[in-house]
Amino acid sequence: NAGVTQTPKFRILKIGQSMTLQCTQDMNHNYMYWYRQDPGMGLKLIYYSVGAGITDKGEVPNGYNVSRSTTEDFPLRLELAAPSQTSVYFCASSYIRAYQPQHFGDGTRLSIL
Amino acid sequence: AQKITQTQPGMFVQEKEAVTLDCTYDTSDPSYGLFWYKQPSSGEMIFLIYQGSYDQQNATEGRYSLNFQKARKSANLVISASQLGDSAMYFCAMREAGRRETSGSRLTFGEGTQLTVNP
User: Fold this and answer.
1) In chain B, which residues have their Cβ closer than 8 Å to the Cβ of A104?
2) Chain A residues with CB inside 8 Å of B33's CB?
3) Phi, psi angles (nearest 5°) of residue B94
4) Any residues with CB less than 8 A from the CB of B21 and at least 6 apart, and which?
5) Do A56 and B33 make contact, defined as CB atoms within 8 angstroms?
6) How many other CB atoms are there within 10 angstroms of residue B119's CB atom?
7) Which residues lie closer than 8 Å to B73 by C-beta, 6 or more apart?
8) Among partner residues A56, A104, A107, which is closest to B104 by beta-carbon distance?
9) What is the pLDDT of residue B1?
10) Which chain A residue lies closest to B45 (C-alpha atoms)?
11) pLDDT by residue (tens digit) across B81-117?
12) A89 touching B, CB under 8 A?
């Protein structure tokens, strides 16, 4: 079982560049999430989606965009990368019910130089 | 608003001993779930244990147990018989069940506790 797959695992960007972080899940989960984790900190929610075609902002959405055209895929777009976006990005997915855990991908380590 | 507090930035324990990692939470939603995740140095997030707000008994999962004290709004993780492989960052997280269509049942994470198991 692949679970939640994120690509790439590592990336270095120059200031002002753009890129898309890919996330796909094969568990038929309705809910998907993007988090960022800064060094020594917990995870903060960037965007989430409750189903295909439906997305909404989390705590720290500025500088990011998302789309959800299929149940499986939830890409995160960084426009005009800034050093403050240097972080580890996690994609997660879950079923609807609150007692079911979120399943995480292995993360993308992104550096903006 | 949800809030998770982990007051122990770092904890040390001897191998084979038990350790308790503290977590307190704040929510106005009567229906919620509490989760613990482990993050080893390799970076992945590993789900350990879950406790629902209406669960009558404390959750257990192998060497992990959750000391759930609802009135005190605490959900401490107890690891018994610590092993060297338990050395990792541990995160407490909460998920509100209400308004899930609008909130997406998002998880709110604490800042984590770094556990080091000494041989």
Assistant:
1) 37, 44-45
2) 98-99
3) -130, 145
4) B6, B8, B11, B36, B76, B77, B78, B79, B90, B92, B113, B115
5) no
6) 6
7) B24, B25, B26
8) A56
9) 56
10) A104
11) 999 999 999 999 998 876 555 555 678 899 999 999 9
12) no
Question: DSSP label at A44?
Answer: E
Per-residue pLDDT reduced to its tens digit, B5-17:
999 999 999 999 9
- Chain-chain contact of B95 with A90 (C-beta, under 8 angstroms): no
Identify whether the C-beta of residue B103 lies closer than 8 Å to the C-beta of residue B27.
Answer: no
Residues A50-94: tens digit of each pLDDT: 899 999 999 899 999 999 999 999 999 998 999 999 999 999 999
Residue in B with minimal Cα distance to A46: B106
Pairing assessment for the beta strands B3-5 and A10-13 based on DSSP bridges: unpaired
Question: CB distance from A98 to chain B under 8 Å?
Answer: yes
Q: Does B31 touch chain A (CB under 8 A)?
A: yes
- Residues B42-71 pLDDT 10s: 999 999 999 999 998 999 999 999 999 999
Q: Give dist(CA B89, CA A34) in Å, integer.
A: 20
